[in-house]
Amino acid sequence: MMAFQDEAKFRKNRELELKHGRICMAATIGMIVPDLFGRFDGYLSPSQGLKFADIPSTIDAIYKVPVEGWLQIFAVAGALEAKNQAFPMDYGWPAFTGNVGKLQDPERTKKLLAEINNGRLAMVAMAAIVAQNGATGQSLVEQFTTGNLNPFVGGYAEQEMTGDRVALRAKSELSVSLPWAPVPEGLSNKPFGEYVGDVGFDPLGFARNKRLLPWYREAELAHGRVCMLAVLGYTVQTSGAKWEPFITRYPTDSSDPLKAATQVPIIGWLQILVVIALSELWRYENVISKY
Questions:
Q1: Under DSSP, is residue 167 helix (H, G, I), strand (E, B) or coil?
Q2: Does pTM surpass 0.70?
Q3: Do 123 and 24 touch, CB atoms closer than 8 A?
């Protein structure tokens, strides 16, 4: 990161990273703890009859909190920001107790590194929680308690009683490979069905042409086999194994397989093409022509 900015900008960005990490750590706790341990008793806004118990642990809480509540939150955040101008990256130890400058290196560096790592994890976690909440309409704890752990199904799933358990069943089948998308036309979405490995992946819509679909499968297999051999030959050559000088009387370079390809004589490439052509003719007569 330092390669693209000067030290002053880097320090500013580091302060912003810490700030966002701290916010996300607090927000992640706020999205989980109330559902696990309960909410405060009493009213959040007595004038509006709004209790703490009425505030959900989801992004819908943003719209539940009255304007006066948000003003108080902004006031506290502003006070912390003013303090941060005087003592950047130092909230004291223990935090918010006023003991600024108490921690010294190497203990300070160790705890700062832990805070950075935990803040980064919290930012990723908060992004995932909000995304899942937006897709399912449930809080994280609600998803776990109902077994609705697939965010792409939960948005339009229905509960179905099976004995003493509650199962979630999607109303429409989704692709195995792309769980947010429907199964492409022409595919069965069954990995062990007619086409082994069919996981409902066809973003370009080739499977719509059922007449050519078997040929596409053969082409896929042929390219896969060629690439497997190519990767094997590439790695074997770079490991030092080689057959020269049997392929040609001229020296070849096994340390660079791409360069070695240019050193194979024309007669060698003709032999390779003949072998490929014969194998393709056999495959056409015995496999492709059967469709």
A1: strand
A2: no
A3: yes
